[in-house]
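A further point concerns the way the authors explain their paired sequence and structure data. An entry of this sort, consisting of the sequence and the corresponding backbone structure tokens, reads as follows:
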Amino acid sequence: MEFRIKFRPFKLEDAIFINKLRQEEEMEQLIGGSKRPVSYERDLKWVEQIILGDSQTSIYFAITFMDSDEIIGYASITDIDFRNGSCFWSGIKIDKTKSGKGVGTEVALKILKYAFEELRMERCTGECLENHEAVLRMLLKVGFKKEGLMRNRLYKNGKYNSQWLLSVIREEYFEIKQNYGL
């Protein structure tokens, strides 16, 4: 597979883009985590901490097109557990003008490649809101398997929401790698 996107480290100026993404109400309603107003200054500090920190349990990637350095989104792998070989794909945020064009699929495949080939994980999990059908389809398309529905897992949008728990294990990744020519 020839990727149109690449990962790069965060830059301080990415905080402007990240803060704008947080203001997009539609996106915030469909992702896990608490919705709250976040100032540009807080996002700047957060990006700085990611850049200067040396976390052994999380990695953040700025997403750009191959021919550009301009950020179009970001993704992360968290809860990295080297002893047990597991990690959590904490999701993806992409500029809405770039979504729906296969970018999410490419990001998911690059995340899996990184988790299994660079971090040498045995298992990578992911979650999505039960009613976020586009993300569920994308996760299943790239090879994640449903493990179950976590009922009333997340309070969001004024109610408790269920979330799908999905995963890919190492042996499945090698099938994904072959199917997509990674």
